Amino acid sequence: MRLHEEIPAADRNPEPTHYVNVDLDVYAEAPLDGLVQALGDEVFVLYVGGSRRKYEAHLELAASHLDMSADDTILGLVGLIRKLSRVHRKTWAAAKRREFNIGIEAGIEPHSFELRLQQATLDAIRDVRGVIVITVYAPDLREATPARRRPKKK
Fold it and tell me: How far apart are CA 48 and CA 68, in angstroms?
């Protein structure tokens, strides 16, 4: 079924497409616990762990929930990486992947959405040997459906 057939147009009211946050995702063949601890309280740990040469850490800049832009969030994360001690910088450098994952939540409107990063941000990502990943989350149309139309929980 098409979207307009599932929910009457008058009942649709999802949020517009918008930038959500940037996660720092690190994948390595060695444990990342020390690296994460070295980043300190300025990061919020979503996950750190793994085994058998498949380790990963997923982090957010703690201050990023204060309506920071993608540029400011990435530059904040890069600043923390640059402050790492030599031993933790080696862990960072040895990682298989170092991703700055930009999250965007899709909505029905606007028709298009652009998120531009400044050249200084791109240079900073390159300087720490990171890459950009973009994740687009589908709109949650259940939230856009009025309570009277939601199926009852059993």
Answer: 24
> Would residue 70 count as lying in a domain?
yes
Q: What is the pTM of this model?
A: 0.81
What total number of domains does the chain contain? 1
Return the DSSP state at 150: S
Contact yes or no for 27/97 (Cβ under 8 A): yes
* Residue 151 is assigned to a structural domain of this protein: no
Query: What pLDDT score was predicted for residue 6?
Result: 54
The pLDDT assigned to 134 comes to 97
Alpha helix (H) ranges present in the chain?
3-6, 33-39, 70-82, 86-94, 119-127, 141-144
User: Of 111, 107, 105, 109, nearest to 141 (Cα)?
Assistant: 107
Q: Which of 103, 24, 21, 101 is nearest to 57 (CA)?
A: 24
For the chain, how far is it from start to end, CA to CA, in angstroms?
25
How many Cβ atoms sit within 10 Å of the Cβ of residue 99? 19
User: Does the residue 104 lie in any domain?
Assistant: yes
**Domain hosting residue 86, numbered range:** 20-146
Question: Is residue 135 a part of any domain in this protein?
Answer: yes
